[in-house]
Amino acid sequence: MPESFLFATWAGGGAVPPVLSIARALRERGHDVRVLADSSLHEEVAAAGAEPIAWTTAPQGDAGDPAKDVIKDFEARTPLGAFARLRDRIVCGPAADYARDTLAELRARPADVLVAEHMLLGAITAGEAAGIPVASLVTTLYPFPTPGAPPPGPGLAPAEGALGRLRDRVVTALILKPWEKGRPALNAARVASGLPPVGSVAGAFDRVDRLLVLSPRALDYPGRRFPDHLRHVGPRLDDPAWAGELELPAGDAPLVLVGLSSSFMNQRALLERIAEALGTLPVRGLLTTGPAVDPATVRAPGNVLVTAAGPHSVALRHAAVTVTHAGHGTAVKSLAAGVPLVCVPLGRDQAEVARHVEVAGAGVTVKRSASSPVIAQAVARVLDEPSYRREARRLAAEIAAETATDQAVAELEALATRATARD
């Protein structure tokens, strides 16, 4: 029986394709799907077969254009400054605007389920106020502290012994404290929506019926324990609508796929150092800049093809290694294809993803400031040491089993069915 789903998302770079992948899958199953989103995403929403709805008062941005990016975390001087921009410009600061727009849409055209990208606490607030089931989509590793694992964010190795456990308690407190500066704005949004205030911002992320993590359980730590309403539903491996056609560099040398952030993170100089590194190795390089960098501005040697985009899921069938910023989407697509990684984290969740790749034995990490020789050495190491490909293939088998059925769609349909049965 067709159900009605209202999605809420924002121009968050790599977080967009997995959200729209689920919207597309629901639409293909005959459901009514609308997506509240920044106007810059409306072509992608329509390409997914869903109906785009513009935010009215909530922020509008374009992650591929530094002038129009809402957060501009690339301007921050410290990781804490970058976090504060996310908190104040998306999660908490404009929560009342997101809540107002979402409630207005729900009142004009009711939905059976609200599906929100997990950083949109304002939209989640609106779903709670409307009294409908709410599902939150986490498009990376679960980003909040839980028992059985180091606190996520800084990319810490798993703790060992009493000192390690003390470290985890101290770092957990340090990670959660900055969220509380956003609590007044979040609570103002809740009160304006007819809801009581919350005691913590971190707790507000759990005020949903289902928390769907679009990340492989196999990539997370085995002993980590999660909230009861959380489900690992597997990654979404679709390419974005703007990926275009694949062009491979000529030759038969091992292929190295290079892909940094699809949003602007001041990555052009790093792209050039990676290209220079590949020029010293007996490989072919396929360097995709994404929409944030003009490929014509990236200097590269003759064995490296620089292009704006290309479907990574197809390129990975030919690749021997991926060099990436360790954005969740690129990292997981590579692992799903059994391709090991050289990770060069730029910020956001990327240090954490890179650490998990390293712990799994499926790749190595180098610093953003690494020179071309250091990058070349890391690529050669991953190419030459069979254990990296072996562990990547192990993860690929586990990801294939996890994605054999569409667990995300099943969870959302079950929420809708319970909602309509209750009505």
Give the proportion of residues in helices. Answer: 25-40%
Tally of helical segments:
15
Distance between the amino and carboxyl termini: 15 Å
Structural class: alpha/beta
Number of strands: 13
Across the major sheet, the strand order is 3-2-1-4-5-6-7
Task: Indicate the overall shape.
Answer: globular
Report the radius of gyration as a whole number of Å: 21 Å
Largest sheet: 7 strands, parallel
Strand-and-helix sequence, N→C? EHEHEHHEHEHHHEEEHEEHEHEHEHHH
Average pLDDT rating? 94
Q: Which band does the percent of strand residues land in?
A: 5-15%
- Poorly predicted spans: none
Question: What's the layout of helices and strands?
Answer:
Layout: E1 4-8, H1 16-28, E2 32-37, H2 42-47, E3 51-54, H3 79-91, H4 95-108, E4 113-117, H5 121-130, E5 134-138, H6 161-176, H7 183-192, H8 201-204, E6 210-213, E7 230-232, E8 255-259, H9 268-278, E9 284-288, E10 304-307, H10 312-315, E11 319-324, H11 328-336, E12 341-343, H12 350-359, E13 363-365, H13 372-384, H14 386-402, H15 407-422
Helix pairs in contact: 4-5, 4-7, 9-13
